[in-house]
Amino acid sequence: MINLNVGRSGPEEPAADDAVRDVVLSSNELSFWYGDTLALEGISLEIREREVTAIIGPSGCGKSTYLRLFNRMNELIPRTRIEGQVFFRDTDINHAGVDPVELRRRIGMVFQKPNPFPKSIYDNVAYGPRVNGFRGDLDGLVEQSLRRAALWREVSDDLDKSGLALSGGQQQRLCIARALAVEPEVILMDEPCSALDPIATTRIEDLIAELRDDYTIVIVTHNMQQAARVSNKTAFFMVNDNGAGILVELGITEQIFTNPSDERTEAYITGRFG
């Protein structure tokens, strides 16, 4: 079994310079097929530690497909194929020696629709640590995870309550707490606010801002205003003439939204297509 070599970094302040920040996730000339359909073509991209990277682009450009490649969820779909490489730090995650279960523990995921287990709030958060053989203070870990997900104050007296009884926004924060409980290094978020009302969306965005000091976060969003609010970097994807998703550019979010280097990005940002 290959060692993923993904020990958490210390509490030092994140560096401001890309030359200092470590690359946590990356792809090299990555192409991906669903059966005979080319979904992504030739994507090379680097995501650095303790930053929020937003992926934006029109529907059908492969944003969610690309996100799911980082924890190997696409391989659960029949007749998929990948060319190129996907790295978690220095490890090619598609190597036969990489344990996908361990990979998914290190790279957590929050889905578009909240998906709490049909269990209590406590058991939702405790599930992952139990499966992974956690032997420490489970009560303390559950509380810490709920606090980090900004949910503890709302549920601390109702931990035996079903997670399914919470509001949509609370369910999504519960799913974030569940992801945090297994101590990941990276959190992938696939349209985490698309099913939420504006108040719940604001709480999730505030939570992302709090978490980015300790975690590397990648968020797929159709909401360009949200990308501008929460992210340090933004990647713009679009569909090429082959019908496949491609990376047009990756840059500092402010630059992408005010002075993009590619005219196709500017056309999308200003609403001229997409």
Can you offer a commentary on this structure?
- With 274 residues, the chain is of the alpha/beta class.
- Helix content is 32%, strand content 25%.
- The protein has a domain at 23-113 and 186-269: 3-Layer(aba) Sandwich (Rossmann fold), CATH 3.40.50.300.
- It has a six-stranded mixed β-sheet with strand order 6-7-8-3-9-10, with helices on both faces. Strands 2-1-4-5 form a four-stranded antiparallel β-sheet, covered by helices on one side.
- Strand 1 (23-34) and strand 2 (37-48) form a beta hairpin.
- Helix 3 crosses helix 4, helix 4 packs across helix 6 and helix 6 runs parallel beside helix 7.
- The N and C termini lie far apart (44 Å).
Sequence-ordered SSE layout with sheet pairings:
Layout: E1 23-34, E2 37-48, E3 52-56, H1 63-69, E4 80-88, E5 91-92, H2 100-106, E6 107-110, H3 121-131, H4 138-148, H5 152-155, H6 168-180, E7 186-190, H7 198-211, E8 216-220, H8 224-230, E9 233-239, E10 245-252, H9 253-258, H10 263-269
Parallel strand pairs: 3-8, 3-9, 6-7, 7-8
Antiparallel strand pairs: 1-2, 1-4, 4-5, 9-10
Helix pairs in contact: 3-4, 3-6, 4-6, 6-7
Order of helices and strands: EEEHEEHEHHHHEHEHEEHH
What CATH architecture of the domain at 23-113 and 186-269 would you give? 3-Layer(aba) Sandwich
- The CATH topology of the domain at 23-113 and 186-269 turns out to be Rossmann fold
Which percent band covers the strand fraction? Answer: 25-35%
> How many angstroms does the end-to-end distance come to?
44 Å
CATH class label of the domain at 23-113 and 186-269: Alpha Beta
Q: Any idea what the shape is?
A: globular
Helix content: 25-40%
Q: How confident overall, as mean pLDDT?
A: 92
The overall strand count is: 10
Strand order of the largest sheet: 6-7-8-3-9-10
What class would the helix/strand composition place it in? alpha/beta
Q: CATH homologous superfamily of the domain at 23-113 and 186-269 - what is it?
A: P-loop containing nucleotide triphosphate hydrolases
